[in-house]
Amino acid sequence: MVKENQNIDILHQEDLKGHNSFLLTNCIIDTIDLIGEFELNVHLTIEKCLINNLKIHSCWFVNGLLLKNCIVKNHVDYQMGGHNAKPIVIEGNIFTGFFNFFDCQFDNRIELRNNVFVKGTNLLGNKGEGFENSFVDGWVVENNIGNIDLNEVAV
Q: Which domain of life is it from (predicted)?
C-alpha cells in the first residue's frame, strides 16, 4: 500500500492491517497513532513526511520500520518497544522534541543515522537502570546531531 502526497489527519493501526508493506511518502500527517500495537506485522516506511504527533508507545515493529527524511514535531514516547525481527532504521530526520526510548528490547539492529535530535534522546542512555534498552543484534549510530545517551526518562 502506498499513500503519497496526501494530508492525513490520523493513521491508526487498523489502516495497516492486511498489508505486508505500507509506504507513506511526501505527506503531511497530523497523527500516527500506533499505541499498544504489539506485533505490528507490516513493514512500515515513512519518508519525507511532516508528522505533528508520532505515538508509538508499546508498538513492536516486528517486520521493521524505516523512518527517513521526516520532521517529527512532538515528544516521542517509545516504551516497551522493539521486539523487531527486521531492522528499525531511523535516518535523516529532525526530531524537535525529546525522543524517549524506555525499556525497549531490540531483537534485530536499530540504526540511527544523520538525524537531528533537538532535545536529545536516551536510546543509549540510562546505563545500569532496570529500564535500560537492550540490543540483541547491536546498534548502529552515525553522524547524529544532539545527545543520544541522555540519562533521562522524559524531558
A: Bacteria
Low pLDDT (below 70) residues in the chain: 154-155
Its pTM surpasses 0.85: yes
- The answer as to whether 82 is a domain residue is yes
Q: Does 22 map to a domain?
A: yes
User: Residue by residue, what is the 3-state secondary structure of the chain?
Assistant: CEEECCEEEEEEHHHCCCCCEEEEECCEEEEEECCCCCCECCEEEEECCEEEEEECCCCEECCCEEEECCEECCCEEEECCECCCCCEEEECCEECCCEEEECCEECCCEEEECCEECCCECCCCCCCCCCCCEECCCEEEECCECCCCCCCCCC
- The CA-based angle 147-149-152, given to 5 degrees, is 95
